[in-house]
Amino acid sequence: MSTLLLRLAAPLQSWGDDSKFNNRRTYSIPTKSGVLGMLAAAFGRKRDASIDDLKTLEMGVRVDQEGTELDDFQMVHGKKQSDITRRYYLSDAIFLVGLYHTDEAFVRKVKEALLHPIYPLFLGRRSCPPSYPLVLGIRDCPLQDALEQEPWLAQEWRQKRLPGKLRLVLESDGKGTEVLHRLRDVPVSYSPERREYQYRYVRESGYVECSKEQETEHDAFGELG
């Protein structure tokens, strides 16, 4: 069993929900469609290529820094008319994403693709390139264990201002007595002519307790390292 851990951080991220047309909202966490789209880009796949193998990856998210939602007001000028659009983003957010599969060789292929991507990578939208490091490595343990055991990704000066309880969201089979949420973010096709998504269940697996680091001098350029 192998879990690939990713650090999704950037000045801006946007993980589109079901909203369409001129009001484009974002989920509070990375979507599976957005993350798998990033993997497909890393492998150099066209939008109409099969992603069945990528869909077998089980995904979990730990919210290390929630960030702040902001919206961007835009005028889109077409040939016949101009439209007002609002696009929503998450600013200054950090997520720990785990991708689990029983086939270790497949997980390693995904890791290598992300380290040497064929197409540019972005966090939900083309205007949101990731900061680095993006790939944290492979952990030889189940998904939940990997997400719970990884050190807190927020910078030390931030940790002093944030609660030490991190939200954990995991995929579920929809059974049992847990509180479940249903997200329509499993991609069937990325084709511009036929974009299609399916539903999946996720569960909130409580909160991960993280110890806080000792206070150190703030490095304004730390995120660029």
How would you explain this protein's 3D organization?
There is one protein chain. By secondary structure, this protein is an alpha+beta fold. It has a single domain (2-71, 85-218), classed as Alpha-Beta Plaits (2-Layer Sandwich), CATH 3.30.70. It is 17% helix and 40% strand. The chain has helices at residues 32-43, 52-55, 104-115, 143-149, 156-159; strands at residues 2-13, 23-24, 58-65, 68-77, 82-101, 135-139, 165-172, 180-189, 196-209. Strands 1, 2, 3, 4, 5, 6, 7, 8 and 9 form a nine-stranded mixed sheet that branches. Strand 4 and strand 5 form a beta hairpin. Helix 1 (32-43) packs across helix 3. The two termini are 31 Å apart.
Gross CATH architecture: 2-Layer Sandwich
* H and E string: EEHHEEEHEHHEEE
Percent strand equals 35-45%
- Poorly predicted regions: 214-218
Structural class: alpha+beta
Roughly what is the average pLDDT, rounded to an integer?
86
- Report the sheet with the most strands, covering strand number, pairing sense and barrel closure: 9 strands, mixed
Number of domains: 1
CATH topology: Alpha-Beta Plaits
